[in-house]
Design a protein that fits this description.
single chain, alpha+beta, GMP Synthetase, Chain A, domain 3, 3 helices
């Protein structure tokens, strides 16, 4: 039961942070293509790992993460206010590059298939 509550609170925090990034956090270092992929809560709801996907160069990703850390106090207070939690969870922002890694892998697969087809066409 407790794990269910942590998952539900994580889902709500994900929605709140996504909305805050769209409407209230106005740091130019946070690109428009920044998404909150997942929020994983500790079982006691005092810590939240916030996984972000940031589209851009490594420099832009680093700047975005620095901006998120800088805005974390504001985000934390807004999360506590909007979800009405007794204790505002400590937010830990983490860069999730799984989408980019998946896209790179898909491009590699596509390129390999194309090369194989070209080789097969030459041998016919």
């Amino acid at each position: 039961m407790r794990q269910n509550r942590a998952a539900r609170v994580g889902d709500e925090i994900q929605k709140v942070i996504s909305q805050l990034l769209l409407t209230e956090v106005k740091d130019p270092r946070i690109p428009m293509m920044t998404s909150v992929l997942e929020v994983r809560m500790s079982s006691d709801l005092t810590h939240a790992n916030v996984f972000l996907s940031v589209y851009g160069s490594q420099k832009e990703k680093d700047e975005c993460m620095a901006a998120m850390e800088r805005a974390s106090g504001f985000i934390r207070s807004q999360v506590a206010k909007r979800i009405k939690l007794r204790v505002a969870p400590e937010l830990h922002f983490k860069l999730d590059e799984s989408i980019e890694k998946s896209m790179d892998l898909m491009n590699l697969i596509d390129r390999t298939i194309k090369e194989d087809e070209e080789r097969a066409a030459k041998h016919e």
